[in-house]
Amino acid sequence: MIKYTIRRFITMLFTLFIIATATFFLLAAVPGDALSSRAERLPENIKENLYKKYGLDKPILERYVITMRSMLHGDFGESITYEGQTVSSIIRDKGPVSARLGIQQMLLGVTVGLLLGVVAAIKKGTWIDYLVVTLSIVFISVPNLVFGLLLQKVFGGTLGWFPVIGWPQGDDLLFGGWEYTVLPTLTGCFAYIATYARLLKTSMLDVINQDYVLTAESKGLSRGQVIRRHVIRNSFIPVMTQLPMSVAMCITGSFFVENIFSIPGLGLYYVNAVSGRDTSIVLGNTVIIAALYIIVIFITDILYTLVDPRIRIRGGKK
């Protein structure tokens, strides 16, 4: 266990290093920079001072070394688009907004998706199964942008049940202002519903045909007992594989949803940073997303042993 943890930790650090390096040089290869539009109208001496302030006057390799050294100390640099703000301060201030939105979307979407997946597998070949499959195809095919605009039009505009834009502030940031969160949460949860409903249904149908399930039925266990004790638990391994991406992305923000509903989260800042070529914000967010994803994958590997005790951390089986 200790050797496995150390090996995985070293692999995680190396992976983050590769991601940060690749992101830096890809951003540097893009023509222009975040100061181009501003600096072209300024006097030459002010332009030089501006580029010097953000270190853009240095050669690319020197900038790379400075950037990597700063990142080792947790400093991702200062934003060019949002003058006076650092990447760390933006993440600290806007991270809770994206985290709440993403967690609500994931909890609702994954819960409903798993329930629909179980029902579709149990009712295979019935109209319920076909309804779940149809809904899953629609939910995964239609972009969040379309769902968001439709929900705004119907429930925000025509019926006037919920606010169209905005997000809870102040004391309501984490646990209040639920009326502002309903439409954004629904908009982002449809993709989770489609993904997990189809995934669990397929996995359950595969497990149902296994020999040990047929043996359990032959011993006199009822259909419900077989599904609860054997089928559902063993069907959750593919679900556990999908969860890391869902958890990491739910924390870092829903880009389109935040733009549609004018939610001041990381997604909105990230989109503006990409369009404005703000390399500090893009690099910082990319590395943090990668770090979250890698950490959750590591935790998921450990959770595999809880879902299936036959799996061991060392990679073998009994």
UniProtKB/TrEMBL annotation:
PROSITE patterns attached to this UniProt entry: ABC_TM1 (PS50928)
KW Transport (keyword) present: yes
Top-level taxon: Bacteria
UniProt subcellular location: Cell membrane
ABC transmembrane type-1 domain sequence ranges: 95-304
Keywords of this entry: Cell membrane, Membrane, Transmembrane, Transmembrane helix, Transport
GO cellular component: plasma membrane
Signal peptide: none
Membrane topology field: Multi-pass membrane protein
Pfam families linked: BPD_transp_1, BPD_transp_1_N
CDD domains: TM_PBP2
Main location: membrane
Segments crossing the lipid bilayer: 103-123, 130-155, 175-194, 236-261, 281-307
PANTHER family: INNER MEMBRANE ABC TRANSPORTER, OLIGOPEPTIDE TRANSPORT SYSTEM PERMEASE PROTEIN OPPB
Family to which the UniProt record says this protein belongs: Belongs to the binding-protein-dependent transport system permease family.
Name used for this protein in its record: ABC transporter permease
